[in-house]
Design a protein that fits this description.
This protein has 195 residues and is mostly helical. It has eleven helices and no strands. It has helices at residues 5-14, 21-33, 37-45, 52-66, 76-82, 89-107, 113-117, 120-135, 140-153, 160-170, 177-194. Helix 2 packs across helix 4 and helix 8 (120-135) packs antiparallel against helix 9.
Amino acid sequence: MPESNLQFVTNQLYNLGNAGKENRQRVANIVLENQLLMKDLVTITFKVDDKISIKAAWILEWICTHHHLDWMIPYLEEFSSKINTLKYDSAIRPCAKICEHLANAFYTSKENDIQKNLKNTQIDNIISCGFDWLITPQKIAVRAYTMNTLYLFGLKKDWIHPELKHLIETKIIHESKGCKARGKQILELIAKRRK
């Protein structure tokens, strides 16, 4: 009896090895050759109590960053409604980066399919989760991606920039050098927008 796609993808992730570029690309290539496997990759990413979800998130982010962000379109609802359930730092970071990619695609001047398919409720879920990530202990990369994501979504939702500004000034800017640098950059962008 042939194994299911879900089991096949799970086995590939177990055999991934470390997070090296060549390993991520190797497993990403398997999904790139059969787009139907993307569904299983998303499913595994949100098996939040299983550490295999970390490797699934790595591959999902790799595909979105280096190949096809548009492949997320059928899964935007699942992704946006479940990102707040992620537990492992190593799964949150790649998903925070995917959120940033979605925000960048949504606000680019070049018309694209993300703009046509990313719904307000999905954006609201990403925003809500982003603020949660900023007020809870997270790695620098998660904070950096999230500040940028929230800044971009704040271009259309007026309430975001004042909240983001307050969080950066009272909390984030007092954390690591990396957080302070990105925080200052976002504060400058917000100030420029207000002029």
